[in-house]
Amino acid sequence: MTPEAGLVQDIRENPDDDTPRLVFADWLEENDRLGCAELIRASCALAGMERGTDDWLRVRRRENALIEAHKEEWVGPMRAHWSFWEMERGFVEEVATSIGPFLEHAEALFRYHPVFFLRLGGLTPHLAESVANCPQLALPREVHLSNSAPPGARPHDLGVRPILTLARSPNLARLTRLHVLQGGIGPEGLEALVESPHLARLVDLDASGRGDGRQVIPNVGNEGALLLAASPASARFARINLTSNRIDPQGARALLDSPHLSPEVQLILGDARAFRAPQREALVDRFGEQVFSRWE
């Protein structure tokens, strides 16, 4: 392992501690990368200051100037392949991109940056194997997957095949949060994710469907709710989003009666209109007010 790889790994393992970041800054300075080192120090200092004060504004202006002056060196030409990126305390921690650029630039992206949160669009069955085998997929803690239809194009389902491939990948072992958005993965895909031995750390699962107020296209459907209710593996989840999945009273009853779902789980069903008042009240009592956080 190279020195920089070890330093970045220390940041990944201690995400809330500034010490590994400042150690990395010292290493950069020792290797004549003074601007990047100052950027990390300024960003870490800013994070610990009271927002809006004169000192905070002064350091914020300095941080912005350093980002503008050194972003090509620190972030590099990969920025052209990202639809979104966010830097926290001197390092890129969130990136949104499509599958092709991710596979091409993953090694360079993770070389100097921890990237805890990765959004990947354009997943297709023929690319799923390459994504599953990408060693850098093992590094982020949170991944959002979608098929991401181009602007103006009609969205299409991701389908179950890519999910079955990914669920077999040991590279997912670090994930704590997984969002498979608008994918039409069905109960089979949901079962693969819930039961995968490689996703034992997963505690936040978003399997919401697609809805625009006029039409709802389920992702896992009512069968997905029945599956979650019956699976002992569901006990590990702290949050499950089933919005826009056409959960009916039978599915809601199964979730209410489940012996496996944690008493503390945050379940989100979205639309309350599918349930009569007594069942709505029971769902709120069992899962909290956020269970109907989206009223369609």
Describe this structure in words.
- It is a single chain.
- With 296 residues, this protein is an alpha/beta fold.
- It is 43% helix and 14% strand.
- It contains 11 helices and 10 strands.
- It has helices spanning 3-13, 19-30, 34-47, 54-74, 99-112, 125-133, 161-167, 186-195, 221-230, 249-257, 277-287, and strands at 82-88, 91-98, 117-121, 142-145, 177-180, 204-206, 210-211, 216-217, 239-241, 266-268.
- The strands form 2 sheets. It has an 8-stranded mixed β-sheet.
- A hairpin with a 4-residue loop joins strand 7 (210-211) and strand 8 (216-217).
- Helix 1 runs antiparallel to helix 2 and helix 10 runs parallel beside helix 11 (277-287).
- The longest helix has 21 residues, at 54-74.
- The radius of gyration is 21 Å and the shape is globular.
- The chain starts with a helix and ends in a 9-residue tail after the last helix.
